[in-house]
Design brief:
- It is a single chain.
- By secondary structure, the chain is α+β, with helices and mostly antiparallel strands.
- It has one domain: 7,8-Dihydro-6-hydroxymethylpterin-pyrophosphokinase HPPK (Alpha-Beta Plaits, 2-Layer Sandwich).
- The chain has three helices and nine strands; from the N terminus they run E-H-E-E-E-H-E-E-E-H-E-E.
- The strands form two sheets. Strands 1, 2, 3, 4, 5, 8 and 9 form a seven-stranded mixed beta sheet that branches. A two-stranded antiparallel sheet has the order 6-7.
- Helix 1 crosses helix 2.
- 30% of the residues are buried.
Length: 165
């Protein structure tokens, strides 16, 4: 299975938080493909803290439910608290890992619709900080594989799909 994740942080040192999450994801899955970061305004709530987001693709044998539990465990290990305030509104966060989409073993997109997981993410096409990295990762699918390391995609002359190790 290939999972397309979005990592976001707007507390403390966001890039350090994301780097720590990438290390944990890579160790738990055998490697990551990573897009360049995007700075974005908070979505769905007001905050003085801007977000840093990036997309990540990981290949793993985990089921969607296992991947959700794994990403949630990474968030907890890194010290991220609840993503919502007591009134249900969104809150600032140390690290947030969302499953944007997934491909099955045959390379075709899968759908999941359970009480605690929806794939593709219901807001995938409504958030540029999801959609831009997702498109970058989809473009690189035939080009890159990685095992045990983080591979970063870096835009060159406006090209979103120029991979660099």
């Amino acid at each position: 299975m290939r999972y397309y994740l979005n990592l976001g942080s707007n507390l403390g040192d966001p890039m350090r938080n994301i780097t720590r999450a990438l290390a944990a994801l890579s160790a738990g899955t055998g490697g990551c493909i990573v897009t360049p970061p995007i700075v974005s305004q908070p979505w769905g709530f007001r905050s003085e803290n801007t977000f840093v987001n990036l997309g990540v693709a990981v290949d793993t044998g985990m089921t969607p439910g296992q991947m959700l539990r794994f990403t949630q465990s990474v968030e907890r290990r890194l010290g991220s608290g609840p993503h919502r305030n007591p009134d249900g509104s969104y809150a600032d966060r140390l690290i947030d890992i969302d499953i944007m989409a997934a491909d099955g073993p045959d390379g075709k997109p899968i759908t999941v619709n359970t009480d605690n997981l929806t794939i593709p993410h219901p807001h995938l096409h409504g958030r540029d900080f999801f959609l831009i990295p997702y498109r970058q990762l989809r473009k690189c699918r035939p080009v890159l594989t990685c095992h045990g390391k983080v591979v970063t995609l870096q835009a060159e002359n406006g090209a979103d799909d120029a991979p660099h190790a």
